[in-house]
Write a structure and sequence with these properties.
The complex is a heterodimer of chains A (239) and B (288). Chain A is mostly helical. Helices cover 77% and strands 0% of the residues of chain A. Chain A is flat and about 75 Å long. Chain A starts with 12 loop residues before the first helix and ends in a 10-residue tail after the last helix. Chain B is 40% helix and 23% strand. Chain B has helices spanning 2-14, 28-36, 62-78, 94-99, 159-171, 183-191, 202-211, 239-255, 257-266, 275-284; strands spanning 38-43, 46-47, 51-53, 59-60, 83-88, 105-107, 120-129, 131-136, 151-155, 176-180, 197-201, 218-221, 228-235.
Chain lengths: 239, 288
């Protein structure tokens, strides 16, 4: 391998600023998308378990569509196709006047995609609650919404914290796909540095290290959350 | 403890080992090709007419044809049958894939510049172009000065991106830049009216117009904003392989075969070879 290594380019002011800015966009996209994903994912996940068949059908359809189309394709559809399908004025607004169109599109696409995955985890969490508890709640005279509010959701949400951790990490990693619609997040910025300096391996190493650090911090946050929400004797380690 | 181990492992795998991409023989690339029986060609997917995918998703084009001449020469040099393996590249990946030994020869629309020569090497010049602006005929844009307040798409990692940015900064204009990945996406952004202009090498702009749905709506405008001599890219510090390529291209230039290859790809676009390019062909026709 005849490659001229030069690690110092990463610390030149211009390129360091690019990395910092890319880090900022990556975190912004991931956290914004996560907020959308948690809200919609929780609603859809609950919707898949309710007695009402129509709601169940709608929610199941949502999950199948958003979970089965590759995220990259979804990004392109939101960015290139949706503005063309809308009335001309709206489409033009989306393409020209919407503030930060690349950012908004990336957040919406990533948020709705991740929501479908969270919905499945919420559903699985609710279904693992022993049916005896639901029966007991009904025997106590709780109606359906009360059963969800006081019995099913408090237990299931605590149980799915561990799988949600990996989803939380995935949202950071998937945010890198936003570069395909022109958002200069961390991966895109490291590519830019590679193009300007031709020191690609250093630039991507820097990006890799930053991603690993983000992942470690995210894991620690989720572990703390897990500790505080644990139900003694249910899941996870005692401690 | 676990995290400490993990970080150690990461450090070891990342920086402290270099992949053994190929054996460091005297003939570098030639040895590698001889050993594997295949030559790996990196090609662009939407650089019309240099290297792009045809209806059957096969790479074709002016650069691909010239590369095939080199492949024949390499096969003759090694005196063995070679299989050609195609690897798609884009402006962002081409240098890295060449430097790390993934591809042996890059056939596309790559500008030979000295900064890039820190990592890669080039064959003789096979085309001469420069940055211009593609816009809708009704946009009112006639030169780079008219971009003020407009949106322009630029392909990340191209010399054109920098040429346009430099012109914009020099004039102190306010231009919204949309970074795109390749020419197809730049054209899509222009066609869907997301941007007012797309800038790349002028010859590629004519190619994009010829492939668009409404060729009459678009025009290439303005002065050249940069000088971009194209060349096929090879690995650095590998003069043996380079020489085989140079010989093959010199033969094509010398025999006049280049004119037929040129016509085949550029006549449909209505772009005759300009005097500078003809001179480049003459200069490349080195005697045996």
């Amino acid at each position: 391998m005849n490659y001229n290594w030069n690690w110092s380019v990463l610390f030149e002011e211009q390129y360091l600023n690019w990395l910092i800015s890319g880090f900022g966009w990556t975190v912004s996209v991931a956290l914004s998308a996560w907020c959308i994903a948690i809200v919609i994912g929780a609603l859809v996940g609950v919707g898949k378990t309710v007695p009402n068949g129509v709601i169940r059908g709608i929610c199941a359809t949502y999950v199948e569509i958003f979970r089965n189309v590759p995220l990259l394709v979804q990004m392109f559809i939101w960015y290139f196709a949706v503005p063309e399908l809308l009335p001309a004025d709206w489409g033009r607004w989306m393409k020209r006047d919407m503030p930060n169109p690349e950012f908004v599109t990336a957040v919406v696409a990533l948020g709705l995609y991740t929501a479908s995955r969270i919905a499945e985890q919420v559903r699985a969490g609710i279904e693992t609650v022993p049916p005896g508890l639901t029966a007991a709640a009904t025997a106590h005279g709780l109606n359906v919404s009360q059963t969800y509010r006081y019995v099913l959701l408090p237990i299931s949400f605590r149980m799915i914290v561990p799988p949600l951790t990996s989803e939380f990490l995935t949202v950071f990693k998937n945010s890198s796909l936003a570069l395909t619609i022109g958002l200069l997040e961390l991966t895109a910025q490291s590519q830019q540095i590679a193009e300007y300096t031709f020191q690609g391996f250093e630039a991507f190493t820097a990006a890799t290290v930053i991603y690993v650090c983000i992942a470690l911090i995210a894991t620690i946050i989720m572990q703390v959350l897990e500790k505080y929400t644990r139900i003694p004797g249910y899941v996870g380690k005692e401690g | 403890m676990f995290i400490k181990n993990m970080l150690l492992t990461a450090a070891v795998t990342l920086g402290l080992s270099t992949p053994a991409a190929f054996a460091d023989g005297h003939g570098g690339t030639l040895d590698k090709i001889a050993a594997s029986g295949e030559i790996v060609i990196g090609h662009r997917e939407s650089s019309v007419p240099f290297a792009y995918l045809d209806e059957n998703q096969q790479p074709v084009g002016y650069s691909i044809d010239l590369c095939m001449k080199i492949v024949e020469a390499v096969a003759a040099e090694l005196d063995q049958e070679l299989t050609v393996k195609y690897v798609p590249v884009n402006p962002k990946t081409r240098i890295a894939l060449m430097a790390n030994g993934t591809i042996d020869l890059e056939c596309g629309s790559t500008t030979n510049n000295l900064t890039r020569q820190q990592q890669v090497e080039y064959m003789p010049v096979t085309f001469v172009t420069g940055t211009k602006i593609l816009t809708r005929k009704d946009s009112g844009i006639n030169s780079v000065a008219d971009l003020d307040g407009k949106a322009v798409a630029l392909a990340q990692g191209t010399t054109n991106e920098r040429a346009v940015m430099a012109a914009v900064e020099a004039a102190g204009m306010d231009v919204k830049v949309l970074p795109v990945r390749d020419h197809a996406e730049g054209m899509l952004s222009l066609e869907t009216d997301r941007v007012d202009a797309y800038a790349t090498d002028h010859i590629l702009l004519y190619g994009l117009i010829s492939k668009s749905k409404n060729p009459d709506d678009f025009a290439v405008v303005g002065e050249f904003l940069s000088f971009d001599p194209y060349a096929l890219m090879v690995r650095r510090d590998d003069s043996a392989f380079e020489l085989v390529g140079k010989k093959a291209l010199a033969a094509v230039f010398r025999s006049g075969e280049i004119d037929a290859i040129y016509s085949k790809w550029f006549d449909p676009l209505g772009v005759p070879a300009d005097p500078l390019l003809k001179a480049a062909f003459k200069l490349g026709a080195l005697p045996e």
